[in-house]
Design a protein that fits this description.
single chain; alpha/beta
């Protein structure tokens, strides 16, 4: 079964890059949204297996979105996709419940490898719980 993914980033270009990379690896991108509040709503509706989350967005930032997503789905894997130089906010996202981090800019091979690693780690935690 291929992972069902929701992509959250305020930049359409970045959403497209992430979608193409994950779809090329056989993942099913079920939704793309541009802000954290919409991500929470769509996670609740669609119950994806995996979320990619930008941190700096105009309406609701990624840290608050991670908290909101965790409130509606404690098991979903969340990969923060963040630009260099945002170490403090990345730490906050991990503390809020993000499962892993990928730095922008990235190569598509790194995206797929990191996403698969995070998904495997999430599955391992669920299996041992």
């Amino acid at each position: 079964m291929c992972p069902r993914v929701l992509i959250c980033d305020d930049a359409m270009f970045m959403r497209t890059v992430i979608a193409r990379g994950l779809e090329g690896a056989g993942w099913d991108v079920i939704a793309q949204v541009s802000d954290g509040a919409e991500a929470i709503k769509r996670v609740e509706e669609l119950r994806p297996d995996f979320v990619t989350m930008d941190l700096v967005m105009p309406e609701m930032n990624g840290v608050d979105a991670v908290r909101g997503i965790r409130a509606v789905d404690a098991d979903v894997c969340i990969l923060v996709v963040s630009a260099l130089g945002q170490e403090q906010i990345v730490r906050e996202a991990i503390e809020a419940g993000a499962s892993g981090v990928l730095r922008k800019p990235f190569e598509l091979t790194d995206l797929v490898a990191t996403a698969q690693k995070v998904l495997d780690e999430c599955a391992g935690r669920r299996a041992s719980a």
